Amino acid sequence: MSTNKPPTELHQAITDLKPYFLRAGGFSLFASLLVLAPSGYMLEVYDRVVNSRSYMTLAMLTLLVLAAYVLMELLEWVRSEVMHEASLQFDKQLSSRIFMAIFQANLKRIPGGSIQPMNDFRVIRDFMQTPVVLALMDAPVSLVFLVLIFSMSPVLGWAAVIAAILQTFVGWLNERSTQPPLLAANRNAIMAQQYADGTLRNAQVIESMGMLRDIHRRWIEKQREFLALQAEASENGGFYQAVSKFLQNTVSSLLLGLGAWLLLRNELSGGASYMIVASILGGRVLAPLIQVVTQWQSVVNARDAYTRLDALLASVPVRPASMPLPAPQGALQVENLLASAPGSQVPILKGLNFALQPGEVLAVVGPSASGKTTLARLLVGLWSAASGKVRLDGADVYSWEKNELGPHMGYLPQGVELFDGTIAENIARFGVLDMSKVEVAARTVGLHEFILALPQGYDSPVGREGAILSGGQRQRVALARALYGKPSFVVLDEPNSSLDEQGDAALAAAISQMAASGTTFVVMTHRTSVLAVANKMLVMRDGQTQLFGPRDDVLKALNEAAEKARQGAVVA
Asked: For residue 123, what is the domain's CATH number?
């Protein structure tokens, strides 16, 4: 039975570029053979021109070698263009997939949910055009040169083989000495970059509380550690590059001297010209190996990037296409829901069960860390359940194709995020702008007049992360985005945390208005203002259902429990 694993997604994408590599390799073959043109020109000048003293022969030989130079450079240019096309095709194949994988990894809180995979992808893509890859394409021609040397003299051939083995050994030593510090340096560079990104995101907190000096000190420590490792790798690599160049510089002279020794012993057929040709070919045999050794850092970087990117794509496989489903009406059913945060085995939700009919409003209350936000994420299909299901109109929300379900769902998370663009674009979820729907959503949350008062109205840019808006205004824009297009199911996680009294009233009115037209709402809240428009209530504690039912019944049960607790305290 075969145990061969199928190729990974990244490996398959590179394998698909095989036609480009073969084409570039063909051009490399001819370009490498033309490298012999200067040697041929030199030998012909010595042999024909000097002996015949013919100006015409010199002129024709010069034209031929110039033509060879032009053709060689043309082939080199074409080869580079082919590899550039290969890198573009690679980008076309995987760039969207990697973007989606980063997005999914971020949702699932697994390694890779940052900008680093895009940098790794760029490293691999650019590596295809580096001198290392082109040198590897020249390697087959080195074997041709080696055969030619053997045909002149087995002694010279074995000398060239020994030189190639020594060069390979130098490359292996270079790998052993530079790989560990380079990999560690790359990891530290990534950590330093992520630390800097986090610092920029929290610039206001750092500045206001005078934390900049200490934060900067920690970043400098990470940066210095990265630079020290990089310097160690550079020093080791520099030593072996010097050894490699020494071999390259001496092998031609050694072959020339060895050829002369053979010639003096009458053991070199072809005379002095073969001695010179063998010396030149010996240098060409080692040229690809020299290129690989001198560019070894780029090899390690590309290999490290490949490993990380391959692991990311394996951890976030492509979702299979699902069958199209009809638009949901808003009937929600939560069945024995058990869930943990991604990457954790500690349960947060423990066996939740409840159901809502279209148009019902559920208020979810409970102390901090009771599982309200986790429930919100599972209701909209961001996280998967360890067991149990969240069903909307009978279909599993997590498995539902989000591009299909998204227009029928609204979500307002605790941490409000707006994106660089206009207010209208943010409300319309950056889809096709339907200004009538945008205005309806803005009016629903009481934002229309404020927007019209802005100099550019709905076309006003919100700035980076909504910087030109106040916290309450950002939350109301995000709320309008959640209600855009009158979705059938809406989940709001602490929607009034940044709202004033007027915003609270607008939120309650919006929920009441849309629920009356059939939209189902689930609202996580600590405030009592939403309770006035809720007809169902869920009280959570430690990830479990403490109470669930009609709002008035639940409030009555809570009041009775509070009264009993108060009386017990008085008696005690």
From this structure: 1.20.1560.10
DSSP 422: B
Confidence (pLDDT) at 204: 59
Are 201 and 99 contained in the same domain?
A: no
At 444, list the tokens.
Answer: 């629903």
b/e per residue, 424-447, with b = 16+ CB within 10 A?
bbbbbeeeeeeeebbbbbbebbbb
Starting at the earlier edge strand, list the strands of the sheet with 332-340.
347-356, 332-340, 387-392, 395-396
Kindly state the DSSP code that residue 371 receives in the 8-state scheme.
S
* Interval 159-207: pLDDT, tens: 888 887 887 787 777 777 777 777 777 777 777 776 666 666 666 556 6
As given in the structure block, the two tokens for residue 191 are 């950590």
pLDDT, the chain, mean: 81
Task: Give the CA-trace dihedral at 419, 423, 429, 430, to 10 degrees.
Answer: -80
Residue at 66: amino acid letter: L
Nearest-angstrom CA–CA distance, 217 and 213: 6
**What is the number of structural domains in the chain?**
3
The pTM (predicted TM-score) of the whole model is 0.68
Burial category of 376 from C-beta neighbours within 10 Å (exposed 0-12, middle 13-18, buried 19 and up) = buried
The verdict on 188 and 80 lying in the same domain is no
- Please, are residues 174 and 240 in contact by the beta-carbon 8 Å criterion? yes
310 domain residue, yes or no: no
The span from the CA of 173 to the CA of 169, in Å, is: 6
The position carrying tokens 């053991």 is 267
Amino acid at 249: N
Please tell me whether residues 425 and 458 are part of one structural domain: yes
Report whether pLDDT(1) > 70: no
Give SS3 for 539.
Answer: strand
> Six-digit token pair at 68?
């060879």
**Of 399, 403, 427, 418, nearest to 486 (Cα)?**
427
Co-location of 357 and 449 in the same domain: yes
The rounded distance, in Å, linking the Cα atoms of 402 and 276 is: 70
* DSSP summary character for residue 349: E
**pLDDT tens-place string over residues 258-304:** 878 877 777 777 666 777 777 777 777 777 777 777 777 778 788 88
The tokens of 136 are what? 């590897």
In this structure, what DSSP letter does residue 345 have? Answer: -
Q: What is the C-alpha separation between 464 and 434, in angstroms, rounded?
A: 23
Q: Assign 8 to helix, strand or coil.
A: coil
